[in-house]
């Protein structure tokens, strides 16, 4: 398994950022389930969240809620 937990490793880090883009694009296209699956996998590969995918998770959790729902 590639060293995803080691941020200084260039290729695994590139993969993680590319996969984060995949999750983001799926969410923008309304494919929230695919976006959330990608986010879950990213958090599994990068549990320390060094690439900042939790921001997308927050957006996914708020999707479909009105501002008045809070």
Give the H and E element order: HHH
Structural class of the secondary elements?
A: mainly alpha
CA radius of gyration: 13 Å
Number of helices: 3
Q: What's the rounded overall pLDDT mean?
A: 87
- Proportion in helices: 55-70%
Envelope shape: elongated
Show unreliable segments.
Answer: none
Distance between the termini: 41 Å
Q: Care to count the β-strands? A: 0
How much of the polypeptide forms β-strand, as a percent range?
under 5%
The main β sheet shows up as: none
Total number of distinct structural domains: 1
Overview of this protein structure:
By secondary structure, the protein is mostly helical. The chain has one domain (10-63). Helix content is 60%, strand content 0%. Helix 1 (10-28) packs antiparallel against helix 2 and helix 2 (32-45) runs antiparallel to helix 3. The longest helix is centred in the first third of the chain and has 19 residues, at 10-28. It is elongated, with a radius of gyration of 13 Å.
Identify the notable features of this structure and list them briefly:
mainly alpha; 60% helix; 70 residues; 3 helices; elongated
